[in-house]
Design goal:
With 157 residues, this protein is mainly α. It is built from five helices and five strands, in the order H-H-E-E-H-E-H-H-E-E.
Length: 157
């Protein structure tokens, strides 16, 4: 280890500031490219996993189910139909099927029933962040309740 440090010190002593800065800049660019490639590969892997899971479920012939239970939203989703979608696309689809607004908990419930692959420990919080971030698509009606922007909410009338 000491030999390596001595070798590095010797090399650094031979380089001027411009050469050293050039090496640092090239190394940073290389690291940035590797990070971007890795992010892209991870995103592609997640997509393939979701497609695989969706195909596996569809082969089993899981029927379309009517949502009931603690949330009576009246929205119909099929098992794993949201597995390969982004959060924003899945939320948009859920809200398009509902005539009025939905609470974040109801949205999460429907996304779970539709097979959306939540990776967060607190999916309600991550869905609320997605709703707040996409202000041009979603509109906050009251705390934790959202609708599609431009749609008239029947519950407010």
């Amino acid at each position: 280890m000491k030999e390596k440090l001595d070798g590095i010190k010797e090399l650094l002593g031979k380089l001027n500031d411009a050469q050293l800065l050039d090496m640092v800049t090239r190394q940073r660019a290389l690291v940035h490219d590797v990070r971007e490639d890795l992010r892209s590969q991870i995103e592609h892997l997640r997509f393939l996993e979701a497609v695989f899971q969706a195909r596996r479920t569809l082969r089993n012939g899981d029927p379309i189910v009517k949502i009931s239970g603690p949330f009576n939203t009246g929205v119909t989703v099929s098992h794993n139909e949201f597995a390969a979608k982004t959060a924003v696309d899945a939320i948009k689809e859920v809200l398009q099927r509902k005539a009025d607004s939905l609470h974040v908990d109801e949205i999460v419930h429907l996304l779970r029933r539709g097979g959306f692959p939540f990776r967060a420990n607190y999916p309600e919080a991550s869905i609320e962040v997605a709703l707040k971030r996409e202000k041009d698509v979603f509109e906050r009606v009251k705390p934790h309740v959202y609708k599609l922007k431009g749609r008239i909410d029947k519950t407010q009338s």
